Amino acid sequence: MLRLAFPLLLLTLLAGCANHIIDPRGYDETGMATFYGAQHQGKPTASGERFDQHSLTAAHRQLPFGTRVLVTNLANGRKVAVRINDRGPHTRGRLIDLSHEAAEQLGMIGSGSARVRVQSLSD
């Protein structure tokens, strides 16, 4: 019995650490955004499509692929609508990773990061 208990406990702990897809309706969070660009150009995203740094896309840990969100740079008020097509950010304390084009439209290329508000959009 003890031999079975340890693997079950381990499995339970690992399942609790896994990312869970969430319902995007009403999603409204504030946090840090970063961007990724040329080094990932053409590589497959978690959704299976190829990354295009010139498109308006983003990576999010939990929102379903295809979800459209409005990202607002809280420092300058600039906004951009992006589509979630990848998983990330993979750095603690970050909410969303944006394509280079999205980051450019938000005016955050120079700083590399920005405090943003992310809100789901209904299609």
From TrEMBL:
| Job description of the protein | Lytic transglycosylase with a strong preference for naked glycan strands that lack stem peptides.
Q: What class of enzyme is it?
A: lyase
* Name recorded for this polypeptide: Endolytic peptidoglycan transglycosylase RlpA
The answer on whether this UniProt entry bears the keyword Cell wall biogenesis/degradation reads yes
Its BP terms in the Gene Ontology are: cell wall organization; peptidoglycan metabolic process
Which residues fall in a coiled-coil region?
none
> Which family is annotated?
Belongs to the RlpA family.
